[in-house]
Amino acid sequence: MSSTSRNSSSPTALYGGQAGRRVTVRDLAAAKDRGEKWPMVTAYDAMTAKVFDEAGIPVMLVGDSAAMVVYGYDSTLPVSVDDLIPLTAAVVRGSSRALVVADLPFGSYQASPQDALASAARFMKEAGAHAVKLEGGRRVLPQIDLLVSAGIPVMGHLGLTPQSVNAFGGYRVQGRGQSGDELMADAKALEHAGAFAVVLECVPADLAARVTAALSIPTIGIGAGPSTDAQVLVWQDLMGLTPHPAKFVKKYFDLAGEMDHAVRAFADEVVSGVFPAPEHSYS
Ligand code: KIV
């Protein structure tokens, strides 16, 4: 693992330190205590996970966003535990340092704490996930209680929780006005139930700042402004593969453009006979 490509020089830093073992939820708690910010990205396959792992990304999420970016659905609702387990196993195999969090998909945990435990246990046993994430606040506390008591680290997710897109009437900012108080109460309840971190998606920046200050567990923002302890993006968004990303996305690369250029060059050389050249051929 190259440490020269990392930004931080501290051996305890989450991004840039602690090579040689997996990041744990205790490391995330310690980073919050130190006031240290950290990055999280989604991953869905082994080779991409290896790149992110070697870059020092401390936490990878096998998001149910796979429904859209891997499977081509127009929401996160259709994917199942069976769809996500092979992706999670691939990300675990492709990484050696990152904490890998598996998203519990829609329908796999809402009905009962027992459903949540059965789904989470499959991700831990069959895929080797180190933690799970589920969406919702006080309504999923029984689920979080049972998972935590079974020794499964749980990441919460509040604000624009995409599995509830139909109830929200679209992908809209959440927590404006008085509903911000509800979100704050949900966040405190998740912390009290033993969640080790909470994602805040598409909420006003000042609300995210207040939640971050009020909690002793890390907050992970996506469209939640600059004050959260960590930031997460879907990797296809940050790399420029997503055609119409949300306002909160910053595009760090033009992967779609680069891939288009490369595949056209390959196709042109096949058609013209330039590829394969002698050095690509066996005698
Ligand atoms: O599924 C996902 O990718 C997520 C992140 C956007 C937080 O839940």
TrEMBL record:
Residue positions of the active site: 201 (proton acceptor)
Q: Which GO terms describe its cellular component?
A: cytoplasm
- List residues binding 3-methyl-2-oxobutanoate: 64-65, 103, 133
Keywords (A to Z) from UniProt: Cytoplasm, Magnesium, Metal-binding, Methyltransferase, Pantothenate biosynthesis, Transferase
Write down the top EC class of this protein: transferase
What is this protein called in UniProt? Answer: 3-methyl-2-oxobutanoate hydroxymethyltransferase
GO BP of this protein: methylation; pantothenate biosynthetic process
Q: Which InterPro entries match?
A: Pantoate_hydroxy_MeTrfase, Pyrv/PenolPyrv_kinase-like_dom, Pyrv_kinase-like_dom_sf
Classify the main location. cytoplasm
Please state the Enzyme Commission number of this protein.
2.1.2.11
Family designation: Belongs to the PanB family.
Reaction(s) catalysed by this chain, per the record, are: (6R)-5,10-methylene-5,6,7,8-tetrahydrofolate + 3-methyl-2-oxobutanoate + H2O = 2-dehydropantoate + (6S)-5,6,7,8-tetrahydrofolate
Q: Which gene encodes it?
A: panB
